[in-house]
TrEMBL record:
The keyword Repeat applies. This is Uncharacterized protein. The keyword Repeat applies. It comes from the Eukaryota. Coiled coil: none annotated. TPR repeats lie at residues 390-423, 470-503, 512-545, 596-629. Transmembrane segments: none annotated. SMART domains: TPR. Keywords: Repeat, TPR repeat. Pfam families: TPR_12. It comes from Adineta ricciae.
Length: 662
């Protein structure tokens, strides 16, 4: 590995005379040829503080014998410390204490041997990358009953959509130039890396993506950083490269099933997460390097020190390239920078089905057996169907907006406007996306501006009865409803409704959505009979689309119940709340916020009907659920406690009055 290559670790030298003797100053020059960001310390506390404050950076420590005995007992808990070398003049004496510490790789008296050992060990770490974090997200079909399932499935889906976008949308001609400019900016003070960037600029071609991917340089470091931090902006700069990797994997993909292995150090928390989703699906949110030899994979594990709170993990992977709609994988030995090194590489975002997780008592290695599965697998398809409306390639910015990553979403839309200024559909989509962001940030005037531009763009290329025109009217109506300008909202909703009925038919889900929106307007205007009529129209359509979206059905039942409450028709309200509850409890855990809110509404109705015991029972159910979630100081638990106290007081008054009467 050349001296100017990517800094995969920080080299730290601790010696009381590190900056004093002429010999040590000369040694520093040699160390900097191994790592040009050498850090030197002559005091233990200063060295400890550096390692502690740079917890996200891998550290290799070279230490004298005397200070080594002092610092080693104090650094065992640092998970970022990957190797320690004792550099001393008395090997035998220092080995006596050093052998107690697994972190110590060697006790060395010869400088040339030390330098060679540090280089060799790092080359091995770079090849195996066992201790490099493995970004992944999990999804289990049964997890839909858990309150946090939306977050888990969202993370799973977002990365799938990202990779779908990068692998299928052709990059613009400017993307490579923007990427190179970014790299030059990031490495402006590293001449060696700048030379490699210049080489990339002049010599890179799409057919050499594997070669550059496996080279230890700026590109691999930045790509790792982008995947591990899910840095959308940085990943967007890699669009052209990820597309080239996808194409090369597709062109060279294997023709027969294979078994391959991945060695990994995972934290106990990560292992618990995987065990809890056993039988579910795992998306690897980066390119996954594996080896076809199990013994080699085990050797990789055994050559790495396991920090406290972590375990050795061996992934046993079965993959069949003949499966339809599966992401490509290939043995890239022939195209590897280190030519001939056997590596089976899987496309970023490859989905695996976890079959079994077991732990060997003899060597404490966690073995995870899994098989690659295709994107249209019937159980995985559940999550994609949930996001069916967002699966177009131009919807990536909308997904970022849904994640509340508004700055990144805005950058995406603005960049797309620059890249595709003559694609009217894309332009309108971007304007609509910018309007969505402004609406979510409650900047209603700005939102109107963007939605109006989207409408104007659509009107230049689409006929007046096109459903996309109706979508623009609906967006504008949503803003006017938020602003309380109900007449304007009603007019735009009605325009959208008429177009959708003519274009899509009276029983389309968009028609149902528009009925619901008009009902919200009527409710705000206190026109409760019309609100009920339109909510019920929406409900009738949605019920015909069963199984459809159960959560939308529950919302409609709750909306209808709310209107009945406003009309003081409590029995009808209770029936609707109960219908909503029965739907929600089949699809959520009993502690889900929507379930608890519906229970509270049912308790409220009982209270209004004078059925105080029943009301109290419902309120207590909610309080118990929130206590299980450890929300003792949450506003909602304080509110439900007030409900309990209020109803309890009313019951006590009734009891007192009864006793007095007797």
């Amino acid at each position: 590995m050349s001296a100017h290559n990517t800094r995969k670790f920080s080299l730290v030298w601790l010696d009381s005379s590190v900056n004093v003797s002429e010999e040590n100053l000369d040694t520093q020059v040699l160390f900097r040829k191994v790592n040009d960001q050498l850090q030197t310390f002559d005091k233990v506390d200063q060295c400890l503080e550096y390692i502690r404050t740079n917890s996200k950076e891998k550290v290799v420590l070279v230490v004298s014998g005397r200070l080594g005995q002092e610092i080693l007992p104090r650094i065992q808990q640092f998970t970022n410390l990957i190797a320690v070398y004792v550099y001393c003049s008395d090997k035998k004496r220092n080995e006596e204490w050093a052998n107690k510490y697994l972190l110590i790789k060697d006790v060395i008296v010869d400088l040339k041997i030390l330098l060679a050992k540090i280089r060799a060990d790092q080359v091995q770490r770079d090849e195996y990358q066992v201790d490099v974090p493995l970004p992944f997200s999990v999804f289990h079909p049964k997890s839909s009953r858990h309150a946090d399932s939306a977050t888990n499935s969202d993370a799973f889906f977002y990365f799938q959509l990202l990779i779908k976008y990068f692998s299928q949308v052709k990059p613009s001609d400017q993307e490579k130039h923007r990427f190179i400019s970014l790299c030059k900016e990031k490495y402006h003070d590293d001449q060696g890396e700048l030379d490699v960037i210049s080489e990339f600029e002049t010599k890179y071609s799409s057919t050499r993506a594997f070669w550059w991917f496996t080279r230890d340089c700026f590109l691999h470091q930045l790509l790792d950083q982008a995947f591990q931090s899910f840095d959308i902006d940085l990943l967007y700069h890699f669009h052209f490269f990820i597309r080239d990797m996808y194409d090369q994997l597709t062109e060279t993909k294997r023709s027969s099933p294979t078994r391959t292995y991945r060695s990994q150090i995972l934290s106990n928390d990560e292992i618990v997460s995987l065990k809890s989703s056993s039988g579910g699906f795992l998306s690897i949110n980066a390119f996954l390097s594996t080896v076809p030899d199990r013994n080699r994979a085990l050797t990789m594990l055994n050559n790495h020190t396991v920090p406290d709170g972590s375990k050795q993990v061996l992934f046993e992977i079965t993959a069949d390239p003949t499966e339809h709609d599966a992401k490509p994988f290939s043995n890239i030995a022939a195209w590897n920078y280190e030519h001939g090194t056997e590596v089976v590489l899987f496309m970023a975002g490859t989905i695996f089905h976890q079959i079994r997780i077991s732990e060997s008592e003899s060597d404490n290695i966690v073995v995870i057996r899994m098989e690659q599965c295709h994107d249209s697998h019937r159980k995985v398809k559940v999550i994609f169907d949930r996001y069916q409306s967002e699966r177009t390639l131009l919807s990536f910015g909308h997904v970022l907006s849904r994640m509340k990553r508004f700055d990144e979403a805005q950058k995406y839309f603005e960049q797309t406007l620059q890249d595709m200024p003559h694609d009217y559909h894309s332009v309108a989509c971007c304007y609509q996306g910018l309007g969505d962001i402004a609406l979510k940030q409650e900047n209603y005037n700005l939102s109107l501006k963007w939605y109006e531009k989207a409408l104007e763009t659509n009107q230049t290329v689409l006929r007046s009865e096109d459903p996309e025109i109706a979508s623009s009217y609906n967006d504008l109506a949503n803003v006017y409803l938020k602003k309380g300008e109900l007449n304007q909202a009603s007019q735009f909703y009605d325009q959208a409704l008429q177009i959708w009925i003519r274009a899509l038919g009276k029983e389309h889900s968009k028609v149902a959505g528009c009925y619901k929106n008009l009902a919200r307007v009527f409710q705000s205007e206190e026109r409760y009979s019309e609100a009920l009529e339109y909510f019920k129209k929406a409900l009738k359509i949605q019920e015909k689309h069963l199984p459809g979206d159960p959560f939308e059905l529950a919302k409609l039942h709750n909306h209808i119940a709310d209107v009945y409450v406003l009309q003081n028709e409590m029995n009808e309200a209770f029936q609707q709340y109960n219908s909503a509850y029965n739907i929600l409890i089949k699809n959520h855990s009993s502690t889900h916020p929507d379930v608890l809110l519906t229970l509270r509404n049912m308790g409220f109705v009982y209270e209004k009907l004078g059925n105080l015991n029943e009301a109290l029972e419902y309120y207590k159910k909610i309080a118990a659920a929130r206590q299980r979630l450890q929300l003792a100081n949450h506003d909602n638990i304080l509110q439900i406690n007030q409900d309990i106290q209020r109803v309890s007081a009313l019951l006590n008054v009734e009891v007192s009055n009864t006793v007095a009467f007797i």
